[in-house]
Each structure stands twice: as structure tokens, then as C-alpha cells.
């Protein structure tokens, strides 16, 4: 139900486009082919090769996987896919299969072998036991494919990328629980030694790393032989960090996020974008500073996994009804970051979510409210802002005003179309 005291705070919004200066890869397929050729890696003819793919949304994922599969076939080997996503998708084989299929990876002649079974490797000098995907272990070789980007939980030499996929993703729920049980300190300290053991004892021969910019386009692709993954990934991480999506201003009363989900970020909304970590004992980033965040919908590709909903202050009823609490709980409990699994205040509809955020931020007048709206935290190059934010951006280079004076809501209380 709408709040009568806040009904009149309905300022006009303005649609902005932030023009980015990024080194976009024009032909991703050709770039992947060139990198694979330059890697010098050869595969055992007649054998099977596992292509490991994670749960992160990657704009050009299908293109990259198709080119890797073609490269495998060109060497007279047979490719197949394995999910390498730890405990995501409810930590079930069928859930992880569905996630890969939802990314467009139900490709002809490319079988998905999804199983939560792992093989325990020799521990040797590693601080924790090491497990890896049983299907990948049974293959003649494994190629890992992942996006390299700053992590949403911690920062270190290795964050999201090939190393984390080797250490956690391929180890399924077993390895995810072992490492996450030690919190962010474990993530910082264990990714490299566990990945090193997998590389030394396993069948991984190559990693294909993708870096995306703030415009959701591929800005770099690298095919790294196994002995270069640990040495070369940090430079790719820094490249990704320098092209992170960012909000155009640091201080907001309200941020409206049309959707969140596992295909957007491992924690639904990228913590580097919203300035909230929600991990006990870990400080939030210094910027941005946002009083209230509302999230309006859960992406279909999340299959009900609302991990990270606790980062929001308000969600809509349709968001709450889309949550699969069993799947979400599995992911949250495995991560150990339970604060992120809290259900926010549930609003009746989009307009009600706006009103609740205004109340939470202590806003009393329309003219001064500092608010912004984005589709999701991967899509910050297009943003709606109020007058106060537009005034701050006046004269800033590469900021285009696409449309002015937009109504945030339709008469029925739902959000107006973004574009």
C-alpha cells in the first residue's frame, strides 16, 4: 500500500548514456582462434577434452565456447562441457546443467556432463585437501573458460577468474565448503595453492580468460597454457579492475536496480558497483555511498537463486515470490556470508518500493532527492537520474542526455520501460 505522506515525491528522471573509452574486441571469434593457435597447446588425438564453464554471465560466452570446441575437434579430440561452479545452482547436477543451458550452451554435438562427484587429489603440501570434478578428471585434458574480474567478497592477487575456477569451481560443493569455511582470509590465501595443486596433478592444459569492460563488451581474450595461468592472470585482473562498471556519482539517496541475479554477479549485484559488502568483519568500499537500494526483479537465469538479496533494502513482491529458498540457502550457507541472504523489506509494487526507499533515506522533498536507476550492475553505462544528480554531471565529458523529464512509473505503479 502506498504511503500517503510520500505520494507527492515523484520527481522527473533523465536518461543518460555514459560514453566509455574502452579497447573493445571487434571480432571475438577471430580473437579466440588466434589466441588458441598462439598458445602452442596440443591435445591428445582421439581423447576426450572437458571444457569447464562457470555460472557467471559472459556476453560472448557462446562464441568463446564454440571456438574452443572447434579447436578441440580440429585436433581430432572430442569436447564435452562440465559445469565448474562450486555450490551454485542449488549444488545439484540438474541445476548446474540447467544453468549452462540457460546461457545458450545446449549446443549440437557438445554434451553437458553435469555431476557433483569429485576426485580427491593427493594433498602434498597444500594447506587443505584438494578435490576436482570427476568427469574432468576422467578426460584426457581439460580447458577452463572464465571471465576475469574483481571479486564481490574480497580483493587479492587472484579474485574471480581461472584460478578461482580451478580452486573452487571445479571442486564442486566439496571444495567450495572447504575454502569458504575459512572466510575471506581463506579465499585470499588458498586460491593460489589449491589451484597450483590442481594444475600440477590434474589434466588442465589451458585456460581461456575473458575480460569485459563497463559496456558489457569483451575487451580482451587470452588463452593461457597451464604453466602461465598463475603468472598471467593478475595482469588481466588489473585490466578488468580499470574497466569496472561504475555509477556516475558517489552519493545517492536511492538506487533503483531493475534486476539482480547469478548471471549478473555471483552475489546478484556487484558489490564493487553498489559499495556494499555485507560480510561481518569486512569494511565496505569507501564509495559509492548509497542510503537505500531497491531491487525490483530476479533474473530468470538465476532459477530462483537470490543470493545477495540482503544487499538490498527493499524488494518487490514479485521478487520475493521468485525466490527459491532452498537453492538460495545452499549457496548462502556454503559461502558462509549469511547476511547476504536476508530477505529485505517487501514492497507491494515498484512505486511502493520507491516510497519505502524515500522513507528509509529520510527524503522529504522531490527537488533535492539524489536518485539513480540502472538495469543491473553490469549495465551502468545507461542510467536514469534525478535533477540533483544531473546538475552534478553538467558539463562532464562523455555524458549524453538521451531523454529528459521521464516518469519513473506507469499509472499502475510499475516501472516505466528503461529505454
What does this structure look like?
The protein is of the alpha/beta class and 419 residues long. It folds into two domains: 170 residues, no CATH class; 215 residues, LarA, N-terminal domain (Rossmann fold), CATH 3.40.50.11440. It is built from 13 helices and 15 strands. It is globular, with a radius of gyration of 22 Å. The two termini are 27 Å apart. Helix content is 32%, strand content 21%. The strands form three sheets. An eight-stranded mixed beta sheet has the order 12-11-10-9-13-14-1-15. A five-stranded mixed beta sheet has the order 3-2-6-7-8, sandwiched between helices. It has a two-stranded antiparallel ribbon with strand order 4-5. The longest helix is centred in the middle third of the chain and has 19 residues.
Spans of at least 5 consecutive residues whose pLDDT stays below 50 are: none
- Strand percentage lies at 15-25%
- The strands making up the biggest β-sheet line up spatially as 12-11-10-9-13-14-1-15
Percentage of residues assigned to helices:
25-40%
Note the run of SSEs as H and E: EHEHEHEEHEHHHEEHEHEEHHEHEEHE
Q: Which structural class matches the secondary elements?
A: alpha/beta
Oligomer: single chain
Major sheet: 8 strands, mixed
Report the top-level CATH class of the largest domain: Alpha Beta
When the domains are counted, the total is 2
The assigned CATH architecture of the largest domain is 3-Layer(aba) Sandwich
Count the helices. How many?
13
pLDDT average, as an integer?
Answer: 92
Q: In whole angstroms, how far apart are the ends? A: 27 Å
CATH-defined superfamily of the largest domain: LarA, N-terminal domain
Radius of gyration: 22 Å
Shape: globular
| Extended strand count | 15
Q: Give me the CATH fold name of the largest domain.
A: Rossmann fold
Amino acid at each position: 500500500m502506498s504511503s500517503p505522506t510520500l505520494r507527492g515525491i515523484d520527481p522527473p528522471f533523465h536518461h543518460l548514456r555514459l560514453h566509455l573509452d574502452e579497447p573493445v574486441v571487434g571480432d571475438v571469434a577471430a580473437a579466440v582462434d588466434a589466441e588458441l593457435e598462439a598458445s602452442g597447446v596440443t591435445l591428445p588425438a582421439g581423447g576426450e577434452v572437458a571444457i569447464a564453464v562457470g555460472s557467471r554471465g559472459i556476453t560472448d560466452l557462446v562464441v568463446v565456447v564454440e571456438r574452443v570446441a572447434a579447436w578441440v575437434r580440429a585436433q581430432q579430440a572430442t569436447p564435452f562441457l562440465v559445469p565448474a561452479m562450486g555450490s551454485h545452482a542449488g549444488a545439484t547436477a540438474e541445476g548446474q546443467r540447467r544453468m549452462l543451458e540457460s546461457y545458450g550452451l545446449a549446443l549440437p554435438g557438445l554434451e553437458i556432463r553435469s555431476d557433483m562427484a569429485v576426485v580427491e587429489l593427493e594433498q602434498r603440501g597444500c594447506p587443505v585437501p584438494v578435490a576436482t570434478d570427476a568427469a574432468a578428471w576422467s578426460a584426457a585434458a581439460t580447458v577452463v573458460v572464465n571471465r576475469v574480474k574483481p571479486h564481490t567478497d574480497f580483493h587479492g592477487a587472484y579474485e574471480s577468474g581461472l584460478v578461482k575456477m580451478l580452486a573452487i569451481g571445479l571442486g564442486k560443493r566439496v571444495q567450495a565448503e572447504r575454502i569458504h569455511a575459512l572466510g575471506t582470509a581463506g579465499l585470499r590465501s588458498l586460491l593460489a595453492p589449491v589451484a597450483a595443486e590442481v594444475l600440477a596433478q590434474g589434466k588442465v592444459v589451458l585456460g581461456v580468460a575473458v575480460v569485459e569492460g563497463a559496456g558489457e563488451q569483451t575487451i580482451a581474450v587470452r588463452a593461457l597454457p597451464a604453466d602461465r595461468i598463475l603468472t598471467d592472470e593478475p595482469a588481466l585482473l588489473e585490466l578488468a579492475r580499470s574497466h569496472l562498471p561504475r555509477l556516475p556519482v558517489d552519493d545517492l539517496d536511492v538506487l533503483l536496480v531493475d534486476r539482480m541475479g547469478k548471471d549478473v554477479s555471483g552475489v546478484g549485484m556487484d558489490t564493487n558497483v553498489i559499495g556494499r559488502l555485507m560480510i561481518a568483519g569486512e569494511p565496505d568500499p569507501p564509495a559509492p555511498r548509497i542510503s537505500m537500494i531497491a531491487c525490483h526483479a530476479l533474473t530468470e537465469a538465476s532459477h530462483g537463486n537470490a543470493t545477495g538479496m540482503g544487499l538490498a533494502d527493499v524488494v518487490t513482491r514479485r521478487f520475493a515470490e521468485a525466490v527459491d529458498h532452498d537453492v538460495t540457502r545452499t549457496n548462502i550457507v556454503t559461502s558462509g556470508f549469511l547476511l547476504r541472504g536476508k530477505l529485505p523489506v517487501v514492497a507491494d509494487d515498484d512505486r511502493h518500493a520507491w516510497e519505502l526507499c524515500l522513507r528509509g533515506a529520510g527524503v522529504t522533498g522531490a527537488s533535492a532527492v539524489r536518485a539513480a536507476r540502472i538495469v543491473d550492475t553490469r549495465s551502468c553505462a545507461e542510467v536514469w537520474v534525478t535533477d540533483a544528480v544531473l546538475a552534478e554531471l553538467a558539463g562532464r565529458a562523455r555524458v549524453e542526455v538521451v531523454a529528459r523529464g521521464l516518469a519513473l512509473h506507469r499509472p499502475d505503479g510499475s516501472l516505466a520501460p528503461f529505454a
